[in-house]
Amino acid sequence: MSELRELYQQVILDHNKAPRNYGRLADANRHQEGFNPLCGDHVHVYLHVDGETIRDVSFEGVGCAISRASASLMTAAVKGQTVAAAQELFARFHAMLMSGPDAPVDEEALGKMAVFAGVREFPMRVKCATLAWHTVRAALDGTAEPVSTD
Ligand code: ZN
User: Fold this and answer.
1) How far apart are alpha carbons 42 and 4 in whole angstroms?
2) Could you tell me the distance, in angstroms and rounded to a whole number, from the CA of residue 52 to the centre of ligand 1?
3) CATH code given to domain 3-148
4) Residue 37 C-alpha to ligand 1 middle, in angstroms?
5) Which of 30, 146, 120 has the alpha carbon at shortest distance from 83?
6) What separation in Å is there between the alpha carbon of 128 and the centre of ligand 1?
7) Residue 15 CA to ligand 1 centre (angstroms)
8) Burial class of residue 86 in the structure, from the number of CB atoms within 10 Å of its CB (0-12 exposed, 13-18 middle, 19+ buried)
9) CB-based contacts of 30: which residues, under 8 Å, 6+ apart?
10) Where are the beta strands (DSSP E) in the chain?
11) How many helices, marked H, and strands, marked E, lie in the chain?
12) What distance in angstroms lies between residue 147's CA and the mean position of ligand 1's atoms?
């Protein structure tokens, strides 16, 4: 776990300073907005979905380092994936965050998202870590209303 913890610090700092896929996507055909009122995080997620494939994805928004790093990692994780694979990754990520702080983490299945295991010790921050994922899921589902983690 201590190795994950160290990685967590690095990944959060790195993605917060240099977020991947940041900005509005010019050829987006899906968009959704998400809010986490508890922390003040606000994110827009843009997708270009072609059939069952997520060809491109981006985000923009304001919020804490955890929400920004999670959004950045989310875009990197789902880009080029099928919609079903993205949904499955979110389900795994969500299940991991809802597990106890000492529950084992499947680093192979989660990839870099596994570093968020440390967030389990701070239940308030779980919503920061999942905001972009709830938002991308709503965009894929075509939900009309913006997402709120409340
Ligand atoms: Zn936050």
Assistant:
1) 27
2) 31
3) 3.90.1010.10
4) 9
5) 30
6) 4
7) 14
8) buried
9) 46, 47, 48, 49, 139, 140, 142
10) 30-36, 41-50, 53-62, 147-148
11) 5, 4
12) 15
Measured in angstroms, how far is the CA atom of residue 92 from the centroid of ligand 1?
A: 21
- pLDDT tens string for the chain (150 positions)? 567 778 888 999 999 999 999 999 999 999 999 999 999 999 999 999 999 999 999 999 999 999 999 999 999 999 999 999 999 999 999 999 999 988 999 999 999 899 999 899 888 899 999 999 999 999 999 988 999 998
| Dist. CA 77 → ligand 1 center (Å) | 20
Q: Which residue has the tokens 């993605």?
A: 15
Q: Determine the distance separating the centroid of ligand 1 and the alpha carbon of 127, expressed in angstroms.
A: 7
Nearest to 149 by CA among 41, 30, 32: 41
Beginning with the edge strand found earlier in the chain, give each strand of the sheet holding 41-50 in spatial order: 53-62, 41-50, 30-36, 147-148
